[in-house]
Structure formats: structure tokens, C-alpha cells
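Thread: "does anyone have the structure for this chain?"

Original post by V.I.:
We have the sequence but no experimental structure in hand. Need at least a predicted one for the grant figures.
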Amino acid sequence: MKITPPKPFLFETGRRAVLLLHGFTGSSADVRMLGRFLQDHDYTCYAPQYKGHGVSPDLLLKTGPRDWWQDVLNAYDHLKELGYQEIAVAGLSLGGLFSLKLGFTRPVVGIVSMSTPTKMDSSSPIIAGYLDYVRNYKKLEGKSADQIETEMAEYQTESMSQIAELKDEINAVASEVDMIYAPIFIAQGKLDDMVEPHGAEWIYETVESPDKELKWYADSGHVITIDKERKILQNDILAFLNHLDWHE
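Reply from O.Q.:
Generated one for you, C-alpha cells below.
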């Protein structure tokens, strides 16, 4: 089966720019509906596709958090090069983590943090979700069950250093969340089985932003942008963006 890899997207409309960031093992497709919605309300949206994501897991193994973070910085700079001087950022999962990091490393008008991990250990569901992603991708490639299990054993060993790097990245960003002063909207699904939901409360309590809001979505899981309450989330994000201090 031929698998078509997802691509970055740029929806240019108004002068207000929003950088949309997907999660670990995810793709730009996870934030595409949000991007179209915001475009319909006069926001320009740009979503990069991290290296190694949306393609063979063998290629994903050759990348790491430093590569993905550089993709985020390149995307931010690309919007600047296009003439967008004021940028807000909205990220899901790992993208939420990078949204926080962007909040204390680059000027942003506002931050939307969705389903963001704040800690990770050897028992984290993120690891199990990662391996499930790899196994499912290999199924789509048409490989036999025996071949998949053989490759999975190898992959599990080879991915240990990458997982360790991801854990270090999560911990490093979490240690500097108190350096965030930009307005922030934190969205968290109560049915999230990938990250600790109460991490959203920790983010809310730790950021120094005077303008901050935390909202729970009772019927949503981890990929909140495409879940049952996505339209409510879209309108909540729009309301947050509309109230920011844009100068365009």
C-alpha cells in the first residue's frame, strides 16, 4: 500500500498569523481543521511537518527533539520572512510543549497549549503510543505479522535513546515554564490517556502570565483538535485569539 506523507500547510488570509504545531508521531493533519476554521475568521495559519513524522518509522528513528524544535523555529522564521510581525502559537501534545518553549524563547502574541505533556518516565503511555504507531504503520506497509514483531523488537531497542531525549526535552521545558509571561489558553481533555491531565493545572499555576485560562473538555481524549468537542475548542481558541493585543 502506498502511503502519502502529510505535508506542511499555509493558509494565508489576514495579517494575524498563528503557528500550528502537531504532536509526536502526529502530523499537520491533526491541526488542519483548526487551521481552516481560523482561516475562515481572517487568521493566517502555518503548520510545519516535523522531520521523520508521517513517513516510515525508520526515518523517524533518525531524528529527535532537536530536529523537531528546529522545524518549529524555521516555521516561526518563515512567517517572519513572509512579513508577519506578530505571531501566536497553538500546539497539540509535543506541539503544546514546543508552544510553551516558544513562549520563553521568541516573542509571541499568545500561546494555546493543548494536551501538553509535563513529565515522562519509563511507564509513560507516550512510549506505548509510540510503539503502537510504529506497529500500525508497518501494517499499512503490508508486512506480515511475524515480520512486524521481529522489526518491533529491534525498533524498541533502537528507539531507547530517542525516547530518553524526548523525556529530557519535556523535563527541560517544564523547568522553564515559569518564564512564560505571554497570554495563554490551556486546553485539556478529561479523557486523555496519553498525558497526565492534571499537568494542565500545573501549567496554569506555574506560568507567570497575568492573562491565562484553563478549560477542560469532558468528552475529549488526547488529540483534542479532532475529537468530539473540536468545534467548541475551535470557538474557544478563536475567542482567545480575538482578545489578544494585536497591533496590525
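V.I.: this helps a lot. The mean pLDDT is 93.
O.Q.: and DSSP finds nine helices and seven strands in the chain.
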